[in-house]
Amino acid sequence: MNNQRGFSYIEILIALAVFAIALVAILPVLSQASRNLSYAQNTYIAHLRAQSLMLTIRDTLAANADPEPVTRDFPFTVWLIGGTAGDRSFSTPGAPPAHVDVSGFAYFGNRTLILVTVWNEHGNKAGQAMGFV
User: Is 119 exposed, middle or buried (0-12, 13-18, 19+ CB in 10 A)?
Assistant: First the structure.
């Protein structure tokens, strides 16, 4: 009576083949998930940068100071529309040329609309924030 236990070579080869096929099917999904996570993190950081810059400019304008000397280590563009600041814009040297259209936007009295756009390394919009002073 031959009482052998374990797997045969054929069973091991079949199991490895099934595992390899499953792995090949899963790898692209994991790669795409990694790219999506990186994009979401970069977008979130850009939004936080834009929000922080908008709040700094709002506080500077509220103190009746010129916001243009505000600097950051990332490219951005700021538009000031209406109010006591007048209609003007300024940006960092690395920011792409851009224009903003706020037609149809309801203004509240003599308030200034602050619109901040943060750009990524490719010159595309990465994050944006808006506020009033």
Answer: buried
CA-based nearest residue to 83, from 131, 34, 35: 131
pTM for the model stands at 0.73
CA 74 to each of CA 11, 49, 94, 101, 109: distance values in angstroms, whole numbers, following the listed order:
58, 9, 8, 23, 33
pLDDT digits (tens, 9 = 90+) for 5-33: 778 899 999 999 999 999 998 999 999 99
Question: Cα–Cα distance between 58 and 48 in angstroms, integer?
Answer: 15
Beta bridge partner(s), residue 131: 114
List, as one string, the DSSP characters of 88-119: EEEE-TTSPP-----TTPPP-TTPPEEEEEEE
Residue 118: Cβ within 10 Å count: 27
The answer to whether the beta carbons of residues 99 and 112 sit under 8 Å apart is: no
- What does each C-alpha distance from 106 to 40, 62, 112 come to in angstroms? 31, 21, 11
Tokens of 106: 């309801």
